[in-house]
Every structure is written in C-alpha cells, then in structure tokens.
Specification:
By secondary structure, the chain is of the alpha/beta class. The protein contains nine helices and eight strands. Helix 2 packs across helix 3, helix 4 runs antiparallel to helix 5 and helix 5 packs antiparallel against helix 6.
C-alpha cells in the first residue's frame, strides 16, 4: 500500500499487484488524499480488484478552475496517465468518475486500453441533475445535512430504503460534506453540463457498462443507450439494484474477466 500525488497534484493510492487498473472514484467532498473513515471507505471500494491488479485510486486535481468542464478534468487524467504509465491502461470509473472516464475515452483514446463504467452513463438523468444541483446549493448555504440527505436518498432502490438513507444522510451530513470545498462544487457543475450521448460512437476501447435498474441518478434506459452507442460496448444490469457499488455480487469477478479479455 502506498500513496502520493502526481506532478499535476492529483492524489493517488496504490495497492495490489499485477497489471495496472486506474480507479476514478465517485464524487468526493475534497480532492485531497482521503484520511480516516473516508480513506477506509475508498480503499474498501478498490480492494475487490487488488487481488489480481495493481489498482491506482486517483482523484481529481485539487484547485480546479471554477469554470472547469468534464473535458478539462479528463485532460488532467490523460496527462497524468501518459506520464506515469507511458502506454494505454485499464480504467474503471465509478459514478462521477465514470463520467470522467467516458470523457477520457472520447478525448484521449491513446491512454485507455479497456474501460469499465460503473453506475454512470453518457449523461445524468434529469432527476440526477436536479438533486446534485440542490445538494450544491445546500452546501454553498452551509447546510451539509440537507445536502447529504438529498444525495443519500438517491442511493435507495425503493421508497423505504430511500427514506432510511435520507435519515442517515441527515445524521452524518457534517461527516460527509462538512469539509466540502470549491472543487466538489466545480465537479458537480461540470457533471451537470456533461452530455456525451452524441459522441459515444467515437470510443474505440472495449467498454463494459454496469448499472442498476433502479438507479435514480441515471436509469435503465440511459445505461442501455450508453452501452448500445459504444461500438464495442456491453451492458451488465442489476435489475433490482439502485446505484451499484463495487461490492455487488459477482461484479469484481466479471470486471476482471472483462479486463483480461475473457468475458
């Protein structure tokens, strides 16, 4: 296990051994190296792949320009991957990281070998955009509990679980978003404007799209459309799940098979 920052300032954590797999995480409250409970959570997300791969968890660059777009964020990753690896590598993008990963594959195909998009698509759903904008407004107003309640409710796969998760978000709001900074707000704004649906046909890498049929940030239709419009795209859909994480049954094994060209 090691951690550090690339020349651009992008923080990374590395664990496991084997061929490299670069993991782009979901939305984070800051772009600094995680610590404490957040660090443990982020490492738990990548551990399923570290048994067979050298996994590089790599977050966005701190100090983003307030007007940065998803293309600007992807360009930071492209520069870091070219410098660090010197050849195309496998990339897995989760949630917001999946949006960045798709932009990376469209704009910088030379750095991506195979791509996994987990709980992300060519754009957010209208509900996803609305809730992320609401959360950003609540964070700007200094109300982290309301922001976390709104975002956590979206992770449920039905009314009951959404209500429970909203309550959890309210209780833990200061932990989730108490230190949220301008980089998080810039990333939300960039994803709000993100829409690659018309350019997905430009992706040349093999792509595996994994989503939940009850994901409120996206939708089953958006996952299907994203996979269908990528020339070498395929879809794995967990019909009864919401925002699918890396611990979903069979997910890690399926991802590793895909990356090895066996699935």
């Amino acid at each position: 296990m090691a951690d550090g920052t690339w020349a651009s300032g992008m923080p990374w954590m590395r664990l496991g051994s084997g061929l490299p797999l670069v993991f782009l995480p979901g939305l984070t409250s800051t772009h600094r190296l995680p610590h404490g409970q957040d660090r443990r959570f982020q490492l738990q997300e990548v551990k399923p792949f570290a048994a067979k791969r050298e996994v590089w968890w790599a977050n966005r660059r701190p100090g983003l320009d307030p007007d940065a777009t998803m293309a600007d964020i992807a360009a930071d990753y492209a520069e870091a991957l070219r410098t660090s690896f010197g050849q195309p590598v496998d990339v897995l993008g989760f949630s917001t990281g999946g949006s960045v990963a798709l932009q990376l594959a469209v704009d910088h195909p030379d750095v991506v070998r195979r791509l996994v998009i987990l709980s992300a698509a060519g754009r957010l759903s209208s509900t996803g955009r609305r809730v992320q904008r609401l959360a950003a407004d609540e964070i700007r107003a200094g109300r982290p509990r309301r922001a976390a309640a709104a975002m956590m409710a979206m992770l449920g796969n039905g009314p009951a679980s959404s209500k429970v998760l909203a309550g959890t978000g309210w209780l833990l709001g200061p932990v989730f978003f108490g230190d949220a900074d301008k980089d998080m707000l810039t990333t939300i704004d960039a994803e709000d404007a993100f829409n690659l649906m018309a350019r997905l046909s430009e992706i040349v890498s093999p792509v595996l799209v994994v989503g939940g049929g009850r994901d409120k940030f996206y939708s089953e239709t958006l996952f299907q459309s994203t996979a269908e419009q990528i020339p070498n795209g395929r879809l794995v859909l967990y019909k009864r799940r919401g925002h699918v994480g890396t611990g979903a049954p069979g997910l890690a094994a399926g991802v590793l098979e895909f990356l090895d060209g066996q699935a």
